[in-house]
Amino acid sequence: MLTRALIVIPLLLLVLVGLFFLLRPASPPENVPTTEESTTEGPQEKTFDLAIVQGSMTPSEITVYEDDPVVLRITSDSPLAFHLHGYDLETEVEPGEPVELSFTATITGRFEIENEQAREELGVLLVQPR
Amino acid sequence: MRRLSRLIILTFALLFLLLVALPSQAFAHGLGQSQNLPLPFWLYLFAAAAVVLVSFVQISLLVNEAHALPLYSRFNLFRIGSLRAVLASRLLLFGMRLLSVVLFLLVILSGILGVQAPSLNFAPTFVWIIWWVGLSFFTAFVGNIWPLINPWKVLFEWAEGLARALGLKRGLQLGGDYPQSWGIWPALILYAAFIWIENNFAGSATPLYIAFFTLLYSMFTWSSMVLFGKETWLQKGEAFSVYFGILGRFAPTEVRVSDPQLCHQCSSKACKEAGAGGCVNCYECFAKAPPEDRELNLRPPAVGLSLGERVSPDRLVLVVFLLASVTYDSLLGTPPWVRLEYLTSLPETLGIIVVPLLFLALYLGFVKLSELLSEGYVSFGQLAGAYVYSLVPIAIAYLVAHYYTLLIIQGQAIIALVSDPFGWGWDLFGTADYEINAAPIGADTVWYSQVCLIVAGHVVAVYLAHVAALRVVRSPRLQSRMQYPMLALMICYTVFSLWILSQPVVEKRKNEAIPTEFMADPSVPTETAPDFDPTLRQPPQPGNQ
Q1: What is the separation, in whole angstroms, between the first and last Cα of chain B?
Q2: Are A129 and A64 in contact (CB under 8 A)?
């Protein structure tokens, strides 16, 4: 039993490691849709126009890659407190006055965008690892 | 007494109706959202393949193993004098109970008096992240301390001590007969209600509601303890004692009463039937046993899930419900579920009954297969009970994979909140300005750790199922045949939890049209979606503004 296990288990691990590298795509993965131009090499600046109409934001989901410099241009038809969780960026938005928020997407993950005043979720920012 | 029983049934029924009638909203997770990214598809494929591969290698290694049942080795921590002095010291034990009661009262007070914004109030973060997630992890990976710190139990004991001191000789317990037919169904119903509040109830993160439900549950628990006796209710009706009890079986520690004579004084049946080794995790007799008969043992993890005791049908249903409820929270956010909801327009609350029933049907189906393969040596009921605990490690692995980032990231909020529990601008410990560090762990590290956890949980589960098979039949041929259905079920359950981790989270937002991909026929324009008014699903949140 023990000798068999000593042979089989390392073999299994070897197969798993091989499978892992076989399946893992070259970074960044292609099957993740990007809203802007395709990401080929290195960080690229991404600009998004976020329009908030009657408490609903379009687009409501933004995807970028790690280390991309990101610019969010926010317009709203009512005053609100725009809050990006995780990065903890907050800005007041008044109707008719577009606000620009820029930052570098250093933290990977899924982050809520919220209107702090009404505590309503507006959308999410997805930062995919490279 | 019969009238009282009816009264209690009526209360349960009313409570349930109340819950169903209350406004519900999908994805109102207890608090805060996990910042996990869904597993990429290739990694999901890899993990699923790994699970299948590992399963068959493991089975092939286990099949011809010696067929003795493992008697696990354990080490009594109380044998080390200094450890015993610390772990069994009255000061530490009393301190922990006092702390637990203080936190319990703080949850109620901050819920009622504090600012109602969930992120500025102590109650939501403490209840949903520190206690519910944090204590679950602690119970599974360190040991079950809930019987020690359970605030309902502690407060009841203190009240009873006070009543005795004041001359009430019989104490507070009326000693009514608990109807045997109820089994642990009360605990199951209360646990289901709790899971419903966590996942379906729109106000689950609103401090006032947390305080309200805590008080409601307290009244209910204490009156039941008065009626049926404290120990009976803790074993049959106190949902969290039962829940943490099951998680604690996975833990690498146990408490044991070494003298079987003392175990016979326990009220629970499993404890009474203890063999020569004494009884394990029988907290009632442990508390009464003299110090020299108490053991605090280190043991191999997860052996508590394969003790081989008889499992009654009510307990079986509860364990299966627990397995289902762990994935329920995230299942609600997966695209297929949301699509199903739009198509059927059934109340979301129904899911909390339907999903566990599906789990139960699947489980019993695979048990039936296993029974057929056993050539009549084992009965269906015996097999159903023998296997059920072996699925728990998969649930625990999923629980950790899904929630650990929430605990280490959102959980940091408690550092600031202890200094300002009411949101009134206090700074008791000088930590009120602590800011959450959202970047302790990258998304790809999270993915790989999730996959490792899920595969590890699966390996443990397969091993436990193997031990369960050894227990019920002698013949090696039958043993190896009978475990294939359970192996198949475990692969399904594990891959299902991987699948959930790989799904994007769908959010229903205010005023947002249904994404076209969720509709039956994508060619129908979104505007004409039948019978769907998103604003209707968004109930007003009282006390938020």
Answers
A1: 46
A2: no
Give the DSSP H or E segment for A70. strand A69-76
Residue A81 lies in a domain: yes
The residues spanned by each domain of chain B are 1-30+75-252, 35-73+350-508
pLDDT score recorded for residue B415: 95
Most B CBs within 10 Å, among A2, A13, A16, to test the B interface: A16
Q: How many domains does chain A have?
A: 1
Contacts 24+ apart (CB under 8 A), A81-85: A81/A115, A81/A116, A81/A117, A82/A113, A82/A115, A82/A116, A82/A122, A83/A113, A83/A114, A83/A115, A83/A116, A84/A111, A84/A112, A84/A113, A84/A125, A85/A111, A85/A112, A85/A113, A85/A114, A85/B35, A85/B438
pTM value is 0.87
Domain of A102, CATH number, reads 2.60.40.420
Res B15: pLDDT: 60
For β-strands A69-76 and A61-65, DSSP reports them as: unpaired
Cβ-based contacts of A8 with chain B (< 8 Å): 57, 60-61
ipTM: 0.84
Residue A72 included in any domain: yes
CB contact under 8 A, A108 and B41: no
Assigned domain for A19 exists: no
pLDDT-derived band at B19, boundaries 50, 70, 90:
low
What are the residues of chain A with a beta carbon less than 8 Å away from any beta carbon of chain B?
A: 1, 4-5, 8-9, 12, 15-16, 19-20, 23-25, 29, 31-32, 54-56, 60, 66, 85-88, 106-112, 119-124, 126-129
Q: Are B476 and B483 in contact (CB under 8 A)?
A: no
Quick: pLDDT tens for B20-37: 555 444 333 445 677 889
Helices (H), B88-206: 90-113, 122-124, 135-141, 146-149, 151-165, 185-199
Does the residue A88 lie in any domain? yes
